[in-house]
Amino acid sequence: MMPPLSRDGCDLAIVGGTVVTPDGTYRADIEINDGVITRVGEPATTGSTVVDAKGMLVLPGGIDGHTHLNSAWPSMGERKPADDFSSGTRAAAAGGITTIGDFVYALGEETLPEAVERVQKDAEAKTHVDFTLHIVVPTLRDGLDAEVAALVESGYPSVKVYMQWPDVVTNGANYIRLLALVARLGGLAMFHCEDRAILEYSRQAFAESGRTAVRYYPASKPVDIEVAATAQALSFAAVAQIPAYIVHLSCAAALDQVLAARARGAQAFVETRPLYLHLTDDCFDSVDPEAARYVGTPPLRGHEDVVRLWKGLSSGQIDVVGSDHVGFTIAQKYQIGDTFETVPKGVANMETMLPMLFSEGVKTGRLTLERFVEVIATGPARIFGLYPQKGVIAVGSDADFCILDPSSHHKVAERSIHGLSDFDVFAGREIFGWPAYTISRGEIIFQDGHINAQAGRGRLVRGKRIAA
Ligand SMILES: [Zn+2]
User: Fold this and answer.
1) What is the rounded distance in angstroms from the CA atom of residue 317 to the CA atom of residue 269?
2) What distance in angstroms lies between residue 282's CA and the mean position of ligand 1's atoms?
């Protein structure tokens, strides 16, 4: 039921815009008080602040469930990414994203709760937007089950497993046991899908034949690495009776594995990434320093895979687009003597993720507006247990918005404007539809190209039980 119009107005009113939700698109004004949506209808009362959204699309704030901004993981080496929670979430705000999902890796002797506390403090001090945290399950040891269980029950329901990690390969049974425990507590299993045997064989074969230059990176990681691990991950999840979330799926053959598992009754979600929607492995036909910029895991694929991923996104076979943002600089991305093995993996693309998906998806007719909103906001909110606090424009939800101007167009800049990565793999592309405003809990944090937010304003969003 709609609350009555407030006679004194509201903290913030968004007027004249077109509201988009997965269920439909309609004209409505919005009233916001104390950071929460208090009315969706028309007309709005006069607010202390009024955003004129005439001609614009009022979308729920974007949720990027896959970022690496706490810049600390065990195998990182010396090239620590330039972007941290502060700079990375400036890029997020500029790109219409109001919630990120970052990954927590325990370092050294840390317990998982200690690692979560460290990352949470870092995020609370630096972020410009809200955040949720996913737990990476490291090498199994005594006491880990209890740590994971306590975290899942206290608002960190998504746990991530890397299928190629040695301990997963040798102690698979115990990982399934752990996932079954997480399932009973209502959690979600996220899987990084690479098969260790094929990965190692391929790595050795390329090294033995002297093909270690960066341009060989895509060929060194054939789709079978991803396909085999995706199949195994889905079987782990099926046996553990836990919903599966496949991160950064890159190819048709891996998607087929997901469809087969769903046909057998599995609850399986798929995330893909801007790289695989907008680029092909042709980018590697280049000199090493150039090619290095495109190195992520999995590698870029061919044109047919790109076409299939767009179809999957449109039809609902693919649920989510996440950036997998890692903000390296050019100097970090390639140093003389680097091979495809030593180039640090990851690409900064949070700032352009939403506008590019709008431009290349909605403007081209491949995605409906409603589907776009499902993919960038409502879907991830549901999957990560953040709904309806996040991901929807409804009374009682957090007042998070990306107000997108579909008539604005300009080229992607040579470098991230608000992040610290000094190159952009999409530089020069003409993009139609950029965020005019980003609003987080009722605060205008981005307007007309400028960030208006203080670092440290972001809050932790705890995930609720995910499984039924
Ligand atoms: Zn990642």
Assistant:
1) 8
2) 22
CA distances, 181 to each of 97, 103, 138 (Å): 32, 20, 16
Q: What is the Å distance from ligand 1's center to 390 Cα?
A: 22
Contacts of 47 by beta carbon, 8 Å cutoff, 6+ apart: 9, 10, 11, 12, 13, 31, 32
Supply the mean pLDDT for the chain.
Answer: 94
Structure tokens at 299: 């590698």
Task: Give the burial string for 348-371 (b: 16+ CB within 10 Å, else e).
Answer: bbbbbbbbbbbbbbbeeebbebbb
Take residue 327 and report the two structure tokens written for it.
Answer: 């903000």
Task: Kindly give the distance from the C-alpha atom of residue 66 to the centroid of ligand 1, in angstroms, as a whole number.
Answer: 6
SS3 content of the chain, % helix, strand, coil (to 5): 35, 25, 40
Contacts of 181 (CB under 8 A, 6+ apart): 145, 148, 149
Q: Quickly state the pLDDT bin for 76 (edges 50, 70, 90).
A: low
Picking from 147, 67, 53, the residue whose alpha carbon sits closest to that of residue 322 is: 67
- Cα 194 to Cα 100: distance, rounded to the nearest angstrom: 24
Rounded CA-CA distance 358/380 in Å is 17
Whole-number Å distance, alpha carbon 1 to ligand 1 midpoint, is 41
Distance 322 CA to ligand 1 centre (A): 9
- DSSP string over 137-148: P-S--TTHHHHH
In angstroms, what is the span from residue 411 Cα to ligand 1's centroid? 26
Question: pLDDT band for position 194 (50/70/90)?
Answer: very high
At which residue do the structure tokens 């599966």 appear? 244
